[in-house]
Amino acid sequence: MSTLAELHEAAIMHNLFLRYQKNNIYTNIGSILAAVNPYKQIAGLYDSTAVDLYSKHQMGELPPHIFAVANECYRCLWKRHDSQCVLISGESGAGKTESTKLLLKFLSVMSQNSSGTPLSERTTRVEQALVQSSPIMEAFGNAKTVYNNNSSRFGKFIQLHFSQNGNIQGGCIIDYLLEKNRVVRQNPGERNYHIFYALLAGADKDHRDTYLLSEGPESYHYLSQAGCVQDRSLDDKQLFNSVMEALKVMEFSEEEIRDVFRLLSAVLQMGNIEFMTAGGAQITSNGVVSNVSELLGLDTFQLSEVLTQRSMILRGEEICSPLTVEQAVDSRDSVAMALYSQCFSWIIMRINQKIKGKNNFKSIGILDIFGFENFEVKRATQNILLRFLGLFSQFLSLLLQRGLDNIEDVSTNNNYHQTEIIWKFTK
Ligand SMILES: Nc1ncnc2c1ncn2[C@@H]1O[C@H](COP(=O)(O)OP(=O)(O)OP(=O)(O)O)[C@@H](O)[C@H]1O
Ligand SMILES: [Mg+2]
């Protein structure tokens, strides 16, 4: 980018486009790497030869690449004697999650090849656990949207703890701002979280009986309301099998797995609870409420009360007042969202237990933020999200501007050299 004669948005976009046409999807902008999603596999771009090549060269010696960024991060742990962080940003479908996986892949190979570590202390435990946890996190935290059929609906910060010898000895995942709204409502043409469809596609007769599940996603309000229950590119049954396998490898017990699926089924059924007005909201689908209470181990009467009444403590006394149908629907949806988000947090906590390890040297953090989108229906949480993203993008623009300023310095510098003008910085 620094060789461009003119630096403005159109020139930058045109340059990125020309490079993209030649399958050069990566471009350096100062210390920032711009990546254009090719939406196709480019032969040899990420194979073991590429990993090996980039691990042996300094930044700038080879064409721009995500592996060059990963390599620079790894080297800087010792060069700068400080922890490193990679921020990945871009609109939905830009390729952030794929880039995160590529960074992890490169760092994992570097860790396994770290020469200083005695064989007995070398561990691939964390790397393996991170790879194996990926289908679980994607099934529970990703969904089909109009922009991306595997869109991350939560932010993820992955921290890898390295030993002095360069081996990954522990890690930690921090999730934030899961899009809870999606559990109860989706925009037209979008889906709920993958795991619900996977459960319905993959559950056999026994599972269906245990989890009180009916046939297809069409029968659940939380899955069918947006008019999209399937996508040709998504294999829900296959996802169910890989999630089951991953849960077992990650040492979730049979009981824990059963509890998670019971909770998911309860959330789905909750969406089918209906109300009518009769001196306040009254539940009309009593069979569904008893299913939900059975799945969650709750008392049916108490659950019905919670969904249709508001209780207040006034001068030490509990006073109940009926909710309107609209309020009852909101309270039903709030319970479903809270249950799902707690389940998600618990799963991340369990994954963290598995990847926990020593933290006695430096770390590399990778932030995979969710993508920017235009929402048709803006709701309160989405507005907060957008504000957060706005602030975050301002921060990134500042970084980008700094990168561009550096380029301007470099290109000005080059021009001066070309015209043989010798110049110095003055304070
Ligand atoms: N480097 C790449 N090479 C080939 N295909 C890619 C690459 N990066 C992304 N893709 C394709 O683009 C799709 C979307 O990428 P990804 O899920 O990483 O987007 P995202 O930026 O994380 O979006 P969101 O913000 O919605 O989560 C992937 O499923 C994959 O098919
Ligand atoms: Mg993503």
What is the CATH architecture assignment of one domain? Answer: 3-Layer(aba) Sandwich
Overall 3D shape: elongated
Number of helices: 14
Gyration radius, to the nearest Å? Answer: 26 Å
According to CATH, the homologous superfamily of one domain is Kinesin motor domain
Summarize model confidence as the mean pLDDT: 88
What can you see in these coordinates?
The chain has a four-stranded mixed β-sheet. Strands 1-2 form a two-stranded antiparallel ribbon. It has a two-stranded antiparallel ribbon with strand order 4-5. It starts with 8 loop residues before the first helix and ends in a 9-residue tail after the last helix. β4 (142-143) and β5 form a beta hairpin. It has a domain at 83-252 and 356-373: Kinesin (3-Layer(aba) Sandwich), CATH 3.40.850. It contains 14 helices and twelve strands. The relative contact order is 0.13. α10 packs antiparallel against α11 (286-296). The protein is of the alpha+beta class. Bound molecules: adenosine-5'-triphosphate (ATP) and magnesium ion (MG). Magnesium ion is lined by residues 96-97, 152.
